[in-house]
Design brief:
Blueprint lengths: L9 E2 L9 E2 L1 H17 L4 E6 L5 H9 L3 E4 L1 E2 L2 H14 L8 E2 L14 E5 L7 H14 L5 E6 L1 E2 L7 H13 L6 E2 H10 L6 E5 L3 E7 L5
Parallel strand pairs: 3-4, 3-7, 5-6, 7-8, 9-10
Antiparallel strand pairs: 1-2, 8-12, 11-12
Helix pairs in contact: 1-2, 4-6
């Protein structure tokens, strides 16, 4: 039996006293992602974040967009406790308490998002999570609303960068259902769910931001 993968989160202190988790990658990538969000998000409305993890991204973005309301979510009780603690520490009034949402679940809570954000999830989850993400986003989002992904991807005709190749191998060793997803396969899911062609934005450390928008007619 393979050992469980190491947690991507680091506790900020004694778990009983401080349930906040810290994801080192969040501090590195949050401002680069924020620059993409400034161009992609609507001026007002609800931004649903799927797989919020520690909660650091949601709090950082809520501070930057006071006219938007952020709704974090995660399937992990540990993550939900961390998100709640980060929200309490931030004092931000435009971020709701986190919801327990499994992206692969057949149904999600009844929400009316103006945008959906998903950071570093689809490669550290079974393919069914990506399928569920697009299925539900296609159902919930209005026409022209964005579904924004961030993370490493494979791209047809391009050799995988050495750092991403090593990362992909480590993910698949931990869990054969994980691994970097081919952008073409992800785009096919998006097309089936009613989204147009993606806007692909090169990001630091061999990552991409990928913005899909719901088509007006499906």
């Amino acid at each position: 039996m393979k050992a469980a993968p190491p947690s991507p989160w680091q506790p900020t202190g004694a778990a009983a006293a401080d349930p906040r988790l810290r994801a080192p990658a969040a501090a590195r990538n949050r401002d680069a992602i924020l620059a993409v969000l400034r161009e992609a998000l609507p001026a007002t409305g609800l931004v649903l974040e799927i797989a919020s993890g520690s909660g650091e991204h949601a709090v950082h973005f809520a501070r930057a967009f006071p006219e938007l309301t952020f709704q974090p979510s995660d399937p992990s009780p540990e993550a939900l406790r961390s998100i709640e603690a980060w929200i309490a520490e931030s004092g931000a009034r435009n971020i709701s308490q986190p919801l327990l949402i499994d992206a692969a679940a057949p149904s999600w809570p009844a929400l009316d998002p103006a945008a959906i954000l998903c950071i570093n999830m689809i490669h550290i989850a079974p393919w069914s999570a990506a399928q569920g993400l697009f299925r539900q986003a296609g159902r919930l989002l209005p026409p022209e609303a964005p579904l924004i992904l961030y993370g490493p991807f494979r791209r047809s005709g391009r050799e995988l960068e050495p750092s991403n190749a090593a990362f992909d191998a480590s993910l698949r060793e931990r869990n054969p259902a994980w691994g970097l997803r081919d952008l073409g396969d992800v785009t096919a899911l998006a097309t089936e769910a009613g989204f147009g062609e993606p806007e692909v934005i090169e990001m630091p450390a061999n990552n991409l931001s990928v913005v899909f928008r719901r088509r007006a007619e499906r």
